[in-house]
Amino acid sequence: MSSFVAALAVGPIVLDGGLGTLLESHGHDMSSSLWSARLLLEDPDAIRRAHREYFDAGARVAITSSYQVSHTGLAAAGFDHADVERALHRSVELARQAREDAGLGADEAWVAASVGPYGAALADGSEYTGAYGRTVDELREWHRPRLAALAAAAPDVLAIETVPSLVEVEAITAELDGIGIPAWVSVTVADGRLRAGDDLADAFALAAGVPEIVAAGVNCCDTAEITGALAALRASGGGLPGVVYPNSGELWHAQERAWSGSASEIAAHAGDWAAGGARLVGGCCRVGPDQISAVARRLVR
């Protein structure tokens, strides 16, 4: 059993916060279609320092900068297959280096290789609708090379993030079956359902059917969605631990590539989420080190 899976059975583990938005707050231009993947290629030390900042704040899982890295997405920006493979491996290595920089061992902090949905590569906000027009087989084929490259980099866990539809959950869970690396599957929701309108419990039931999947839940959603999502996870009957990392509560406008609204308080809910079955708790977009530090103070005794 991996140390990550063993720790998951013991009690809550604190995730990091939004990597791309932290880099943005440091003055980096994140307006390109590659999001944080651009810095992965051009300024990897900035990413390593951001991971370290979250570790120093109390996070014990660093989610890598590979969310928007895909073979099709980088090909459109002029990069070849070998560039993509190197970028995916580098994303895992940078998180490992940050863990070492923070003085943490491999049995007390972990690297989660981020796998974003198909819509993330389109860079048009469609991960929040799931309106791709792609079949399960097409999505399996698209995800396969990136999953293989990240698995070869040997992260502690694969973080399947922001999945908006049951079709894509089905595709990804099929590809994870037999991959040999622990994984969590996290969907994005609105009004208690996947963004594409699918039933949340159906998505969690699919996840529970794959031995490699060790947790399931939601991310990049409003905090108000979390309690219902954890209830749906329990109702799915799979017995998986929960993973929850909502965004700040501000609204993302994909066309303008800008945020509006005010932030919610993540840490105030962390204890209730843990009591409801969450074992991985952190934040997504616009949740920074200060909020992660507050979550750690609530959950770590």
UniProtKB/TrEMBL annotation:
Its cofactor is Zn(2+). The keyword Cytoplasm does not apply. Zn(2+) binds at residues 220, 284-285. Residues 1-299 form the Hcy-binding domain. It comes from the Bacteria. InterPro entries: BHMT-like, HCY_dom, HCY_dom_sf, Hcy_S-methyltransferase. Keywords: Metal-binding, Methyltransferase, Transferase, Zinc. It holds the Pfam family S-methyl_trans. The keyword Methyltransferase applies. NCBIfam families: PRK09485.1 (NF007020). This is Homocysteine S-methyltransferase. It comes from Microbacterium lacus. The lineage of its organism: Bacteria, Bacillati, Actinomycetota, Actinomycetes, Micrococcales. The gene is mmuM.
